[in-house]
């Protein structure tokens, strides 16, 4: 098949192959990938060879049908295969994207391969870069190019077949295992495109976001709540009287070491110094379960309420994730949970965090490229919690091999599905 953007000179086009039995909703994802669009606007297909009394048939997205209902000339794009929309070499359909900007594409069937059936879509040819997402349609794009002539920030001639083909591979994988519909993470992904964050979308394809939890539920719940449950129970009633330095007393340090199976390295029971316990208190304060009052660590109303009902602590933790404040903390936290769900190594996690945050427009205060220290600071609250419960574990032998437990991956999937 060959697709070309209408009303653009020189032409912007791609040539790609697809199995004949795919529905138009999957072809939509492939077109977005081969062209380089970000799937941020509505779309529809218009048939040239099929029509009703009202005009050409239109094939539209299921969510549009669910919202507005059918018109007489409309059909669900998930109900029509590409070999039903175009049946012979030379036939074509129009793909319309972003009605306000009037981006229209002509998609032509150039060849039918019968002796070697195509199993997976691929892109292998094309010319020129896709216009920026909101450059204003064909007329606006010409004005955009005139304005870009002096600074060279956008190269209209750039097209790398391997990049488009990789984007198609990711689009196919996401179609087979997409995020949970209407989840916050699905909405988050809509603010990105495969071409702006290919490693992030490759991680989405690996994350199996609709995977089951049954065999891991109890392990997940215990892992996520055990340490916090110990602290909250310890602070019941009158709370925990702190030392003059603001630390927990030595009997609580000793109890934590025994009951939570913590490593004793670095713990001075007499002095009451324990970095692990300090982190636990910090996390509990971030979750607003405890606070300090006149030298005593006490439960907040929320802390008392999550203890009062079975399972409430677990439900609150899942709903509270990610822990970061503001848009930056939430976006960084979702990417972090994605890296955990996908089973990425420390090295891969850093790559995806930097790529994703950069694609979202975040940068350092001086405008330089984000580094490890930057993203870990951006996602600090969530990262501290996940490290504390052992869902994210450093591999001291090889940063390219993940040491995170399977229950941590399942926990991340659950968080991303809400």
From TrEMBL:
Q: Per UniProt, what is one Pfam family of this protein?
A: PRiA4_ORF3
Source taxon at top rank: Bacteria
Per UniProt, residues of the Plasmid pRiA4b Orf3-like domain are: 2-146
Q: Please identify the protein, giving its name as recorded.
A: Plasmid pRiA4b Orf3-like domain-containing protein
């Amino acid at each position: 098949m060959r697709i070309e953007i209408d009303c653009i000179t020189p032409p912007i086009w791609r040539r790609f192959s697809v199995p004949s039995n795919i529905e138009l909703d999957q072809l939509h994802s492939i077109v977005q990938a081969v062209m380089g669009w970000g799937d941020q606007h509505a779309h529809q297909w218009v048939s040239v060879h099929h029509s009703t009394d009202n005009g050409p048939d239109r094939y539209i997205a299921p969510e549009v049908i669910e919202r507005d209902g059918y018109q007489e000339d409309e059909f669900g794009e998930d109900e029509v295969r590409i070999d039903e929309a175009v049946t012979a070499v030379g036939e074509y359909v129009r793909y319309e994207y972003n009605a306000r900007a009037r981006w229209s594409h002509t998609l032509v069937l150039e060849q039918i391969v019968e002796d070697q059936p195509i199993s997976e879509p691929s892109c292998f040819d094309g010319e020129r870069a896709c216009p920026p997402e909101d450059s204003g349609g064909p007329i606006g794009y010409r004005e955009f190019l005139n304005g870009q002539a002096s600074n060279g920030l956008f190269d209209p001639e750039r097209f790398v077949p391997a990049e488009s083909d990789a984007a198609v591979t990711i689009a196919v994988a996401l179609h087979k295992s997409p995020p949970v519909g209407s989840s916050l993470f699905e909405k988050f992904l809509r603010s990105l495109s495969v071409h702006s964050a290919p490693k992030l979308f490759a991680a989405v394809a690996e994350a199996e976001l609709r995977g089951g939890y049954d065999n891991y539920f109890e392990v997940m719940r215990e892992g996520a709540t055990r340490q916090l449950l110990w602290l909250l129970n310890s602070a019941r009633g009158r709370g925990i009287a702190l030392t003059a330095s603001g630390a927990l007393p030595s009997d609580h340090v000793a109890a934590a070491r025994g009951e939570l199976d913590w490593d004793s390295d670095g713990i001075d029971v007499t002095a009451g110094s324990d970095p692990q316990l300090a982190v636990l208190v910090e996390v509990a304060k971030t979750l607003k379960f405890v606070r300090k009052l006149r030298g005593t660590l006490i439960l907040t109303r929320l802390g008392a309420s999550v203890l009062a009902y079975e399972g409430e602590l677990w439900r609150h933790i899942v709903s509270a994730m990610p822990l970061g404040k503001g848009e930056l903390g939430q976006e960084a936290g979702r990417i972090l949970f994605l890296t955990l769900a996908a089973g990425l190594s420390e090295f891969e996690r850093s790559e995806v965090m930097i790529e994703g945050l950069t694609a979202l427009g975040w940068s350092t205060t001086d405008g330089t490229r984000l580094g490890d220290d930057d993203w870990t600071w951006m996602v600090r609250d969530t990262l501290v919690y996940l490290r504390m419960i052992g869902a994210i574990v450093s591999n001291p032998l090889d940063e390219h091999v993940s040491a995170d437990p399977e229950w941590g991956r399942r926990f991340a999937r659950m968080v991303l599905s809400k």
